[in-house]
Amino acid sequence: MSCIRSLVLLQTSTRSLIRRFVLFVAFISASLPACVGEAVSPQRCVVWGPGLDRDPVVPVRYFYIQAVNSKGENLTVSPGKDTFKVKISPLDKKEHVRIHVPPPLDRGDGSFLMRYRLYGSSQAGLSVQVLHGDAARFPLSDPMIPHFSGPVYHEYCDCPEPDASRWRSVMQCPPQEPQIQADFESFPVVDLQLLRQEVLRRFSNRGGLVHYAIIGNRVFRRTLGKYTDFKMFSDEMLLSLTRKVRVPDVEFFINVGDWPLETRTEGAVPILSWCGSTDTRDIVLPTYEVTHSTLETLRGVTNDLLSVQGNTGPPWANKTDRAFFRGRDSREERLQLANLSKEHPELLDAGITGWFFFRDREKLVGKAPLVGFFDFFKDSQYYEHFYVHLKAGAHYVPVRRNLSDLLEKIRWAKDHDAEAREVARAGQRAAREQLQPPRLYCYYLQVLQAYSQRQAGRPTRHPDMEPVPQPDDQAAACTCGRERPPKEPEDREEL
Ligand SMILES: *[C@@H]1O[C@H](CO)[C@@H](O)[C@H](O)[C@H]1NC(C)=O
Ligand SMILES: *[C@@H]1O[C@H](CO)[C@@H](O)[C@H](O)[C@H]1NC(C)=O
Ligand SMILES: *[C@@H]1O[C@H](CO)[C@@H](O)[C@H](O)[C@H]1NC(C)=O
Ligand SMILES: *[C@@H]1O[C@H](CO)[C@@H](O)[C@H](O)[C@H]1NC(C)=O
């Protein structure tokens, strides 16, 4: 028995407002040897995700495949990493679109993550075939498939959706982001005139600020200070966003340094930063690592937020039941952690990977080699944009900052395996949900919208701001069928 699920990414022009994407599923039976592990029932496999829809444009499109057995139950362990094969091709065989289609990533829990990257736009639409067992040809001439029309745009296509609220619904943005609401509470009004003066006066010597204006959906900027190389990350995100959706006219400052800046409560200015803290008023954006890894997924970046879903290590039952920590010596508690680890190696494996702040202690504690893994240790007043969605006890096991209850918590986790497993699962689910690529784009747009609604004064391209151009190479070529934003007259600049 083999399962062939074929999905066609297409638009039916007549009913496009109701259902712009038609899912076509074909089953073809053939006698094939049974697959690895528990038998997968071909007809019952479930396929879902934004990559099966034409409209949500993200650098790497993706969807999920859930393996299901003959009783209709979801498999909870992997049926083997080669269980499914996926073929993606333009519906119109005359259309040449380069599509990078790596094999599905086994998430180890009975589900698979399928990613693909388009290096061109498809006017006609795409055919997506999910094959279980041996590949078989999908009948493209099938009369059941109605009328196809694309277009399916790729990442570099400069083709913004003019209606931001429509874009938000396509991307399934949450209506509100609690962190954005909280961050803007201090800023009912953003007086641009005052902002320009105050930021220059108070922060221009900090060296890590970039002054942006987005006017007519074009990005302009100037840098303030020497340490602004990381503007490449804010540039690439803003360019990627403006290729997808029309952004309101805004003028703002991004702090590309490591730490938030605004410590005032009275007379605070809204600065966008990649890191927030309970002691500052900066408006937090997804970190540049999260942003960059999303943009560069499948282009050589290791540990991007999609591929880590497949690298979850051994199944729960086989995991080492010890707490694990690696990190730099940035806080004294971390040294204590390494110390505790020596006393209780059966409970804790903690090591310091780099010594910068407490070098005199290195001899005593020693140095551990670096390991690649996803750090989720919540130990300070600093936070990222999605931490607000994580609840102590539900998504992670909270530990006191002075570590006085650490061993107790680890022993608890060892003695309550089922509960600990549920916390790990919930934490993983929350991270997968919050860090999925469409969410990051939503977050950026929502910050810029909230900001623009509060702006007083006209966002302006200043004379020393340079345009940040969209890529102008072969990869950017596309035929955009959407309404173009009106061109801004060039002479409407002011100081
Ligand atoms: C099986 O998995 C799919 C996809 O995650 C989910 O929508 C469905 O509710 C699950 N079914 C059961 C019976 O748990
Ligand atoms: C998990 O442990 C079991 C029993 O020790 C072993 O048979 C199995 O191969 C292990 N699985 C993995 C993925 O390490
Ligand atoms: C490590 O723990 C021992 C025993 O509790 C203590 O005497 C020592 O000062 C600790 N060292 C550090 C570096 O914290
Ligand atoms: C650790 O912090 C808690 C409060 O969070 C306090 O009650 C406790 O006394 C502290 N322990 C040590 C050893 O400082």
UniProtKB/TrEMBL annotation:
Gene Ontology cellular component annotations, sorted alphabetically: endomembrane system
Signal sequence extent: 1-37
Coiled-coil portions: none
Biased composition annotated in UniProt, kind: Basic and acidic residues: 481-495
Keywords (A to Z) from UniProt: Endoplasmic reticulum, Glycoprotein, Glycosyltransferase, Signal, Transferase
Pfam short name (any one): Glyco_transf_90
InterPro entries: CAP10, Filamin/ABP280_repeat-like, Ig-like_fold, Ig_E-set, O-Glucosyltr/Glycosyltrsf_90
PROSITE patterns listed in its UniProt record: FILAMIN_REPEAT
GO biological process terms held by the UniProt record: nervous system development
GO molecular function, one term: glucosyltransferase activity
Segments of this protein annotated with the region Disordered: 455-495
Domain Glycosyl transferase CAP10: 246-458
Reaction(s) the record says it catalyses: L-seryl-[EGF-like domain protein] + UDP-alpha-D-xylose = 3-O-(beta-D-xylosyl)-L-seryl-[EGF-like domain protein] + UDP + H(+); L-seryl-[EGF-like domain protein] + UDP-alpha-D-glucose = 3-O-(beta-D-glucosyl)-L-seryl-[EGF-like domain protein] + UDP + H(+)
Mapped Filamin repeat ranges: 37-144
Pathway annotation: Protein modification; protein glycosylation
Family assignment from sequence similarity: Belongs to the KDELC family.
Protein name: (Atlantic silverside) hypothetical protein
Species the sequence originates in: Menidia menidia
